[in-house]
Amino acid sequence: MLELAVQNLLSPIVLSFVLGLVAAGLRSDLSVPEAVAKGLSIYLLFAIGYKGGVEVAAAGLDWRLALGLLAGAGLSAILPLIAYGLLRAMSRLSSVDAAAVAGHYGSISIVTFVAAGALLQSRGVAYEGWLVAVAATMEAPAILTALWLAQRNASARSAAGVPWREVILNGSIVLLIGAFLIGWATGPAGMAEVEGFLVAPFKGVLCLFLLDMGLVAGRNLARSRSALTVGVVLFGLLMPLVGAVTGLATAWALGLSVGGMAILATLAASASYIAVPAAMRVALPEANPAIYLSLSLGVTFPFNLAVGITLYLAAATWLSGG
Amino acid sequence: MLELAVQNLLSPIVLSFVLGLVAAGLRSDLSVPEAVAKGLSIYLLFAIGYKGGVEVAAAGLDWRLALGLLAGAGLSAILPLIAYGLLRAMSRLSSVDAAAVAGHYGSISIVTFVAAGALLQSRGVAYEGWLVAVAATMEAPAILTALWLAQRNASARSAAGVPWREVILNGSIVLLIGAFLIGWATGPAGMAEVEGFLVAPFKGVLCLFLLDMGLVAGRNLARSRSALTVGVVLFGLLMPLVGAVTGLATAWALGLSVGGMAILATLAASASYIAVPAAMRVALPEANPAIYLSLSLGVTFPFNLAVGITLYLAAATWLSGG
Amino acid sequence: MLELAVQNLLSPIVLSFVLGLVAAGLRSDLSVPEAVAKGLSIYLLFAIGYKGGVEVAAAGLDWRLALGLLAGAGLSAILPLIAYGLLRAMSRLSSVDAAAVAGHYGSISIVTFVAAGALLQSRGVAYEGWLVAVAATMEAPAILTALWLAQRNASARSAAGVPWREVILNGSIVLLIGAFLIGWATGPAGMAEVEGFLVAPFKGVLCLFLLDMGLVAGRNLARSRSALTVGVVLFGLLMPLVGAVTGLATAWALGLSVGGMAILATLAASASYIAVPAAMRVALPEANPAIYLSLSLGVTFPFNLAVGITLYLAAATWLSGG
Amino acid sequence: MQTHTATRIEIIIESPALRALTRELDRAAVKGYTVLPVLGGEGRSGPWTAAGEVGSAGGMVAVLTMVAPERAESVLDSVFEVVSRHIGLVSVSECRVVRPERV
Amino acid sequence: MQTHTATRIEIIIESPALRALTRELDRAAVKGYTVLPVLGGEGRSGPWTAAGEVGSAGGMVAVLTMVAPERAESVLDSVFEVVSRHIGLVSVSECRVVRPERV
Amino acid sequence: MQTHTATRIEIIIESPALRALTRELDRAAVKGYTVLPVLGGEGRSGPWTAAGEVGSAGGMVAVLTMVAPERAESVLDSVFEVVSRHIGLVSVSECRVVRPERV
Ligand SMILES: Nc1ncnc2c1ncn2[C@@H]1O[C@H](COP(=O)(O)O)[C@@H](O)[C@H]1O
Ligand SMILES: Nc1ncnc2c1ncn2[C@@H]1O[C@H](COP(=O)(O)O)[C@@H](O)[C@H]1O
Ligand SMILES: Nc1ncnc2c1ncn2[C@@H]1O[C@H](COP(=O)(O)O)[C@@H](O)[C@H]1O
Ligand code: NA
Ligand code: NA
Ligand code: NA
């Protein structure tokens, strides 16, 4: 287990993220243009969605898909409540800040999903392809809970501004679901046509993307060091574990494979850093973005990448008696 | 035939375009950064030009190349006359608007060419590599005809502003011809060096590009619904068929292969959405861009992609007695 | 030898650069978006650094690495002195302009390194992987010498503004060294995961990058024709030969392989066009950027690409008695 | 050349709030607006850069609208509706435009 | 700091017409101009965005030029030459510049 | 809507000099500034375009800062410190801002 953890730490993927962090820490002017970073993320979403769909096409429709979607939405809606409770107990964040942060932890980070998938692949562990659709379902419900938490405690004003259409139809959800459906419709025959683009270069593109995330995370951390009190940072390390346990339990109840359990645990453990921050800036502008952005991107993401996903896979293996 | 048509509709390429259309229709904020879209189009032009050149290097110089270039230029110059006549008969467009639209239909859309090439490849049908040079020749002459039509009927003022150098040396023509010549000069040996970039990922890149085109087409349609009267839309569906017949006849006269006939039909059937719109905005600013952009990108391109190219291939096969 | 030179001239890489030059010369509007060009350069730096590291991991640590780093830094610091002397003798550049230009020739151009690597690879000649680290070391010292030269002769004011941190930690150095270390740490096993991205498409990406460089070089040349007097242009053709001889001698003293000798010669012969120009605009704003940019990018780079690297490889082969 | 007085309103605002802002501008019946990209900046919440950002949450945009002087006040009220809750900066100045029908 | 009066001319115009505009600016002998990118906007012809555009036909740019007050009128005439046939928006305001030789 | 007078300072400068400029702005204690990208332009050193540029040496940026009128003079002095050695263009105009605490 320790050996596997070290092996994970020495993967090009993790080291690329570290390179970004270090470069930002040294205040190097290394940077990935915004358009390129967005292009890389479109590639990753399209590829991961497509692959999930192709696997569903190959494996046949699984009746657990419907249950999984429900469970994912449920996890997304409920986890913010736990997160909010923990935050109020562990830190001195205002209720609005705590609600905003909590929303991030109910939602998910696709790149953490992708990193977990890469780890599983290199260990030869398979997982249910339709989990990519579950991931998409988990993006939005957490926002609802977060806003409910914020309103309950603060000015009722927040209600009006929630851009629901924009939240539910945000680009990454539409792209992920769309690519999933395309993959499903075209199946392995379609995959044969596009795998020179979607499969062969995938891990290398992921490295560049993680380099960029390291740069952004490092700059965020440097900028908002003061916003990250000890209590808040501890929350950022504890909450993924809480999420993972909840995710594992749900996955176990759904009867998922070892790989599927690790993936659902990872999703529950991960925190959004694209969709939810944008929604919060519109719907809860009073919340301090420095807190939720640097916590999600600078604390929880690296924790999951470096340690978390290895741990969740070990737990899943143990749980399934493997 | 029907089965093949459905098979084409279910290709990742067509479905990616549909995903873009649907996302735009749902008003999702999914979008491809402008720089990335331009980068993808540079890739496609370079790859398609290069491959054409390599095929010419492999197959030896074909004396029909010269005839083909002449025929292409001729088609490009003449088709706008037919288009203009049809438009004046079928719609109530002003003469300036009709001339601007007509210019688009004499010129070509490289991505339609590429989609046809992908279809031929998946059916195992070859085509003459030098048709890519013919495509480049077909970009500009239509503009000349369109301006002549506009001037004949309207203010003589338009004449002055035609930026000829910019039209003939526009980026996509130069890139296509340049890559064609490089491919020709370096031949199969050069191809061996670059095929990991220009061949293996080609279809996948095409999917992302078509996703983007779907998004742009969808937004254009939503924005300019009022400009598209029934007559105008019918023209956008009829004119490609007229173009295709003209293209088939020309290809038949030139003695092209089945694949070559399908390609020339596709070129004649396709409508420009990059070079000609830009030229029209400079030379005929009085024409309404909402009409020509949404007609070319939102009506004719999807028609060709979904139905047209399958049809033209079937017609080419039938014509050659296959 | 002549045959090999012609073969090099007809490679897709060189021809892509020529296409860019020609397109710029024709004043075509062909252009690569800034973000895409930056993305391509990040890709190339990451790939070349990573590959160098993997080779070091495979070949074992070479004690000459330390000597090589020292020698590289030394070359970088000393070459500007020679360049400055030559410039003052051959041209009428002011001392500030001469110092700025000299700095460029002590430093290096990574894309020339990459082109040399591609040539070696196609000839089946290997080179020491750690030379990529030497390349990174050669970026900055030249700037120090250039500023010393400028100050000695001109206003002492220049001293203050040298942004040392920015020069030494500039993006390309950090990325190159970082990728090198990642490649070293992950070794051939890591390479197996990412080679579908870093190796297979490499040469094709290089073609697009050189197309862009041709465009930029061509536009620079057109813009600053007046700044390039005969003496200055001759310097731009002579200095790479002087650098190459110095580089060859150093490589020979270090006991490098034939490939390593050709690479170090190429590094010494190449002139910076990214890091040094940016540093000069800050530290020596009095110097005319038209001179150093068009000389480095428009004269020396094409010379090295078309003729130089073939020559240096021939010289290295001859030197090692091959 | 005859020119006509107009009011130039320049708003720097977080990208996620752009839709809300343009909705208000539409409601205030401005004749048009233009959105410009922003690379980075610094304010009370420290320095930031758009470089490498994947989502829109970290970014800002600049919105420019020219309005007829008599409608400036009401447009400003609408703008403030959105901007008051956001970190945006609104600046107003007089200018002259060539074609009065556009403002 | 001593500053000098100048006229700031800001033109928002379709990208394909940029070359024609800068040709006119050159002819009007402006000392310089700067082109800024535009992301999108809205006008009488509805909302638009540069996102995903492959060609230049759909896009716009903003051109900024500072000119000495005494030449402003003639530069505006040149600009209008191009802009009148296009959908561009021209706005003019007074400013002060630090170095008079640049305007 | 109540507005407050402020000074709008717009600086067009080479990208490599941006850090030096913002350092001076920080020292002059401006409350904030915003950096906008520039696509190209023309000046005494001829036309240029950012297209295809890999390094920052060839590019320029536009920096916008709104400052309280009473501090404008000293900010301009700081700006000139950097700009005097560079090819930048500084223009200054009056504007009104909605929230005085931001300038
Ligand atoms: N006085 C100012 N002048 C120009 N831009 C400003 C100013 N104040 C704030 N900004 C912009 O608004 C952003 C957010 O400001 P703040 O909320 O103060 O951190 C900054 O990063 C700048 O881009
Ligand atoms: N009053 C205005 N203020 C700012 N930008 C405008 C204004 N009117 C038009 N525009 C810009 O010009 C473009 C074309 O305008 P229009 O021709 O009215 O559709 C719009 O999409 C905006 O980008
Ligand atoms: N009068 C001006 N108005 C607007 N931009 C200018 C002006 N003069 C110079 N510039 C900008 O500053 C850059 C450098 O100017 P120069 O040093 O004169 O070549 C130009 O390429 C323009 O982008
Ligand atoms: Na989660
Ligand atoms: Na056509
Ligand atoms: Na050198």
Give a nutshell description of this structure:
Chains D, E, F: This is Transcriptional regulator. The complex is a heterohexamer, with three copies of chain A (322 residues) and three copies of chain D (103 residues). Chain A has 322 residues and is mainly α.
Question: Spans of chain D with pLDDT under 50 lasting ≥5 residues?
Answer: none
Number of E strands of chain D: 6
In the CATH hierarchy, the architecture of chain D is 2-Layer Sandwich
Largest sheet of chain A: none
Query: Which geometry of chain A do the CA atoms define?
Result: globular
Strand line-up of the largest beta sheet of chain D: 2-5-1-6
| Averaged pLDDT of chain A | 94
Helix content bin of chain D: 10-25%
Strand tally of chain A is: 0
Secondary structure: helix percent of chain A: over 70%
Number of helices of chain D: 2
Domain count of chain A:
1
Evaluate the radius of gyration of chain D.
15 Å
What's the number of domains of chain D? Answer: 1
Distance between the termini of chain A: 13 Å
Organism (chains D, E, F): Wenzhouxiangella limi
GO molecular function (chains D, E, F): enzyme regulator activity
Pfam family, one (chains D, E, F): P-II
Protein name (chains D, E, F): Transcriptional regulator
Textual characterization of the structure:
The complex is a heterohexamer, with three copies of chain A (322 residues) and three copies of chain D (103 residues). With 322 residues, chain A is an all-alpha fold. Chain A has one domain (2-22, 31-319): Up-down Bundle (Na+/H+ antiporter like fold), CATH 1.20.1530. Chain A is 79% helix and 0% strand. Chain A has helices at 2-9, 12-25, 34-59, 64-90, 95-106, 110-123, 131-137, 141-153, 164-168, 171-198, 202-223, 230-254, 258-269, 275-283, 289-319. In chain A, helix 1 packs across helix 15 (289-319), helix 3 (34-59) crosses helix 10 (171-198) and helix 6 (110-123) runs parallel beside helix 15 (289-319). Chain A is globular. Chain D has helices spanning 18-27, 69-83, and strands spanning 4-14, 33-37, 40-43, 46-49, 60-67, 89-97. The radius of gyration of chain D is 15 Å and the shape is elongated. In chain D, a hairpin with a 2-residue loop joins strand 3 (40-43) and strand 4. By secondary structure, chain D is α+β, with helices and mostly antiparallel strands. Chain D has a four-stranded antiparallel beta sheet with strand order 2-5-1-6, with helices on one face. The interface between A and B is medium-sized, with 33 and 31 residues. Strand 2 of chain D pairs antiparallel with strand 3 (40-43) of chain E. Bound molecules: adenosine monophosphate (3 copies) and sodium ion (NA) (3 copies). One sodium ion (NA) binds at residues 79, 105-108, 243, 268, 270-271 of chain A.
